[in-house]
Amino acid sequence: MTVNLADVDRVRDYFLGLQDTICIGVETLDGKSSFRHDNWRRPEGGGGESRVLRDGEVFEQAGINFSHVTGASLPPAASARRPELSGRRFEAMGVSLVIHPQNPMVPTSHANVRFFVAHAENSEPVWWFGGGFDLTPYYPFHEDVLHWHQTARAACEPFGEDVYPRFKKWCDEYFYLRHRDETRSVGGLFFDDLNEWGFDSCFGFMQSVGDHYLDAYLPIVERRKDTTFGAEHREFQLYRRGRYVEFNLIYDRGTLFGLQSGGRTESILMSLPPLVRWEYGWQPRPGSAEDSLYTDYLRPRDWLAEAGK
Amino acid sequence: MTVNLADVDRVRDYFLGLQDTICIGVETLDGKSSFRHDNWRRPEGGGGESRVLRDGEVFEQAGINFSHVTGASLPPAASARRPELSGRRFEAMGVSLVIHPQNPMVPTSHANVRFFVAHAENSEPVWWFGGGFDLTPYYPFHEDVLHWHQTARAACEPFGEDVYPRFKKWCDEYFYLRHRDETRSVGGLFFDDLNEWGFDSCFGFMQSVGDHYLDAYLPIVERRKDTTFGAEHREFQLYRRGRYVEFNLIYDRGTLFGLQSGGRTESILMSLPPLVRWEYGWQPRPGSAEDSLYTDYLRPRDWLAEAGK
């Protein structure tokens, strides 16, 4: 289960290529705005490249970050499930992205793929992969959710029949706002601490997740981006974005890891939406489209089995 | 150092009266909108009354909450500094408020006063007071900051000369965004775990802090509420409100305590502003009013001594 420098380089090359591919896909679909690139270095070691597109025709904000950091002491957010690794010298790299569309009929989406190595004096380094993607609709369409999960399942299929259900369930559990008793999204995939299949298969799986993201998201954007909407839909989108902020600042492991490890704050918080509303005591009108989001979508469901797909 | 039921009732009566007084002061100054009252109960014990004013002439949102909760196990956010009390049966009550004005020339302000009792099987209950207030300007005025701190000092003076400097320093340290290296505000007072002066003096001090809040804030609001402002000032206000959200969801002990103890989410998060902006990589223009906020105001300063007050 050891890892060598050539492996680390292969993972890094994959991440850099993925960042490029996704940026091109997003920019092409947007057609108006383009990505600003910011390279940054971290005093404690490593750095990254942040890419942010703003005020596009389709996308209000898209942030697609690569980072590769080293540190003297693995922070708690990365080692909560593995206390024996806390405080070890570490290396972490990955691509993380969040896309906030203009049109409230187009869902927000997030994807992340990451690779960690924890070093120790008198033993082999411990490595693992993590990642996933989830879809956060405002005005959901059932066929979009099915497409999203079918693509997630396709990403998992070569690695075993149990992989999609396992990481789909983990996604529902992870992207959960306890203080609201709501899921953040209609789910997708989430995995962490993955090294049980050996390096090549774990790396292959992580690549499959990364490579399926655009296939999962762009067709949904294409289908919904020109849908007519009104001020009330925009208001609801801004309101629901508040939940995204709450999740990322209170619970999200990647955000907390970034802030705890002295990462670049502006890059970490590019996940936060450009404009957000909170409204005390707001409740959807029973039977409305907004109500259906809560009742039918923001809870764990076995989308594919229910639809006989 | 013990506390009896009559003491608890006196504290509760004070809190209920303070909530009324502050609501009347805010409503009167606003002149247009009024407070909506919501009573709530908590399944585990206790409850509260939330009062929120929205879309006022002067105030975009003002939330002034009373809560009194009991629980079987003191949550970590309340016992981080006193691990020996963690998990004890507890009682907590207080008034907590955040006021977000319409005009960017008027600062946001926050105040909180609270009382805790932790019970145990074979020993006397442990009690303590906490509280404070802090001022968060967007376009700061030096005379407003002096007035705020002079009022804070006046609240402390009867309790000893060292009280203001000690709790002023604690405020600067507490309301600090480590990931931004910025204070949240120009400070004020913050104290916690206070029981060292005996019950009556501690209670008296907490009342003095609560009673001085309107004197500290309303004159500033009066002075600035009719100042002309433009779209760029509003944009900066919305942007800076993002820091308020970041502080409250990442660091604030009251917010974390509330969410961890199963409090009423809508009441806890009424501290979040009604409308907020994030903008990747934004920097103030050197020498601008916005720049001065960062350079001159959002760092610990000994305001009164510097001004010879």
Features:
homodimer; 309 residues; alpha+beta; 7-stranded antiparallel sheet; two-stranded antiparallel ribbon; 10 helices; 10 strands
Structural features, described:
The structure is a homodimer of 309-residue chains. With 309 residues, chain A is of the alpha+beta class. Helix content of chain A is 41%, strand content 27%. Chain A has 10 helices and 10 strands. Chain A has a 7-stranded antiparallel sheet with strand order 1-2-3-4-5-6-9. A two-stranded antiparallel sheet of chain A has the order 7-8. In chain A, helix 3 (142-156) runs antiparallel to helix 5. The longest helix of chain A has 26 residues, at 5-30. The first copy, chain A, is globular, with a radius of gyration of 19 Å. The mean pLDDT of chain A is 94. Chain A binds chain B through residues 36, 38, 50, 52, 54, 61, 63, 178-180, 238, 242, 245-246, 249-250, 259, 265-266, 268-270, 272-281, and chain B through 36, 38, 50, 52, 54, 61, 63, 178-180, 238, 242, 245-246, 249-250, 259, 265-266, 268-270, 272-281.
